[in-house]
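Reading group handout, session on sequence-to-structure problems. Before we discuss, look at one worked example. The prompt was deliberately terse, the way you'd type it at a terminal:

> structure 26S proteasome non-ATPase regulatory subunit 9

The input record follows.
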Amino acid sequence: MAILVFIVQAVNTNSDNFNSIKLKYDGLVDEKNRIEKKLSELSEILRQNGNVGMDTPLVDDEGYPRSDIDVALIRITRNNIHCLNTDHKQIMLELESVLHEIHEYARQNPSKNVLTDGNACSSENKLSDDQSAQIVKKPFLKIDQISPNSIAEQADLKVGDRIVQFGSVSADNFNSLQDLSTVFRNTSPGSCIHMSIVRGDSMINVLSISLLKPAENASIG
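And the output record:
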């Protein structure tokens, strides 16, 4: 499911209900960002320990703990990643629920400028460049190819989409394509990688996409 979202400042609204929803939304976004930052830090620990993944064996061919990595630290880190991925999924579900509430408020109060989806907003609701810069993080990667029947195609990603967030990776911590591979490798099969992209010329409209990692081996595409 893709949710097209952008922020438009509330103007002269006295609605306690909307303010409550907005506060809840802001709190969930803060928690989402906190989790993603922690996931990035944990992924870095795995990278520094032989670039191991979530399923990389921690014993050698003779069944002894590997001596080239910190096995205890990796086990703790993996467990923390599993827990945080679960928390992240729950946060994304709660965010989607809150967005539905905000969309419903916008439908019932068409004269109000609120947090809403791009399809429901008129051109008058666009943010200024200065305002949008405070909301949308800088894209760090542009998609120049989508393989047929790939995970990316199934998630409705398009050539030209610019990636703002890929799991725990953003412009703040992106170094190379290896960062995306690490996120993909550390994601359990059947789980989702949450992405934020910018599509088209606008820096306001942000598309939030869940990229499902299949149970079988597959590349992003």
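Points for discussion. First: The CA atoms of residues 25 and 98 lie 6 Å apart. Second: The beta strands are 2-6, 116-117, 141-142, 162-166, 169-170, 192-198, 206-212.
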